[in-house]
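Inputs:
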Amino acid sequence: MNIDFIETGQVLTIKLKGELDHHSADEARVLIDEKIKNERYNKLVIDLKGLDFIDSSGIGFVIGRYKVIRKRKGVIEIVNAGKKVRKILDMSGIGKIIKIK
Amino acid sequence: MHNNYVYIKIPSLSVNESFARAAVAAFCSSLNPTVNEITEIKTAVSEAVTNAVVHAYEDKIGEIEIQCRIKGRVVEIIVEDSGCGIADVEKAREPLFTTKPELERSGMGFSVMESFMDEVVVLSEKDVGTKVILRKKISEKKQKSLNDETAENSENEE
């Protein structure tokens, strides 16, 4: 799992590359929550372009970040999900609470 | 033809989740599955193994045994642990049910297994362990399989 951060004003784009499962989600959670803890981001963009694999632990991870940013009145958005990843996102119904572009 | 099989035994370390699903996927490749079928198997195995890592042994490390068999065109994968067992299997299989919401568990594991595999059997006994049996028939290669596969690959790269 590889994570890149891009900051544009109050928007933080998180580029996830590789496989998002229970193991890598635990690592990503620590890095991301540390990154957003002391900053005033009002929007998180999760870019899944480089993501090859996701399972239900990855869904739990995304919902977790949604909760973190919502507490601060911010929003979250998912972009560039490939076909395989999109299938799991759709199955979870996560699109009802998070914008998927 | 002799039925093929492989046994894998791993400690319940989360780092082994990716190894387990990749190993099962590699084993199944002799049946020439489609990219979709491989993704579905990988995801289902990931769910079953993650359940064993997260729930069966909690904070301890135990062993997870994965048996994979090919019977004709059917792949049978058994993921077994000797952990705490599931108190109520029926409840555990309900979509979105989780005993660990604080750990950001989505409660979708069994739903994913069920939608990606043809058959999911869960046998569990308290303090003895849990056995998840996953079965899936791999489609016969169609005449146009090579073209289909190329189309599928290019779609996936979008």
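Chain B touches chain A at residues 14-15, 17-18, 39, 42-43, 46-47, 50, 53-54, 103-109, 111-112, 115, 155-158 (CB under 8 Å). Flag for discussion at group meeting.
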